[in-house]
């Protein structure tokens, strides 16, 4: 135990030295960031040195943003025609639309594709799990397929999840709209009440629609934009019925009540459809996971006894 003490002291000393170095580096970086923030707040402050002027910018603008732009340009160069527009449309439908959302997605897409040869080299040359034969090829094929198709699959899944949430919330929101309109509120005031009282994806879409109307767009154009952003059949039917009511002068309250009844029926049918699909989806895990274990438990002792009897 005494012979190991000097080694422990050396390890502790090295750890303390590394910790002090990291602390000193972080403290200096924090002080510099405070100075840069203070300099940015000064009006008319000018820096003659180009390097100092560049250092005033945040680290994300100096290091991360150029890399992101390079990966985005590479992704745009090797993507098919119309793929970027499809990605932007899917990002809008998933509720994650932003000025740089498509660029970030393309950058991630380039990184995942570039990881395929890295995985190939590591998997076949290093072989960390010691596999060989068909199992090694199958695992690499699965990993390569996951890296290539993974970002698109995740994006499609996010779109489906948001559309399902919109379908699930629509009947309840329609009931609130019916009550509000029949109580004397206008259509836009009723939607504003829904936005304030019911949080969720559909309320966010209605809030954006109200913002477009208040910015000067017509109600018809704002509702058509809502229908294009969501791409949900129930919302499309709701938008068309409201537009027809405005065109032909039909009472909006009566249209909303009929739409609310129809939406509740569709939500019940959607729940029944998902319930009827459950037994079919359960067949795969039952056949490949449950039944083999059940056969081992039930038939295993019998097979062992039969083997011992004949031996």
Features:
single chain, 311 residues, mainly alpha, Receptor-associated Protein, 11 helices, extended, disordered N terminus
Secondary structure: helix percent: over 70%
Corresponding CATH architecture of the domain at 168-265: Up-down Bundle
* Regions with little confidence, pLDDT below 50 for 5+ residues: 1-5
What is the ordering of alpha helices and beta strands?
HHHHHHHHHHH
Could you tell me the mean pLDDT?
80
Describe the model.
By secondary structure, the chain is mainly α. Among the domains are: 4-29 and 57-126, no CATH class; 168-265, Receptor-associated Protein (Up-down Bundle). The chain has helices at residues 5-40, 50-55, 59-78, 83-93, 101-126, 134-182, 187-197, 201-214, 219-230, 233-248, 252-310. Helix 3 (59-78) packs across helix 5 (101-126) and helix 7 packs across helix 8 (201-214). The protein is extended and about 85 Å long. Mean pLDDT is 80; it is low at 1-5. One of its GO terms (cellular component) is plasma membrane. Its main location: membrane. It is found in: Cell membrane. Pfam families: T2SSF.
What is this structure's SSE topology?
Layout: H1 5-40, H2 50-55, H3 59-78, H4 83-93, H5 101-126, H6 134-182, H7 187-197, H8 201-214, H9 219-230, H10 233-248, H11 252-310
Short structural summary:
The chain has 311 residues and is mostly helical.
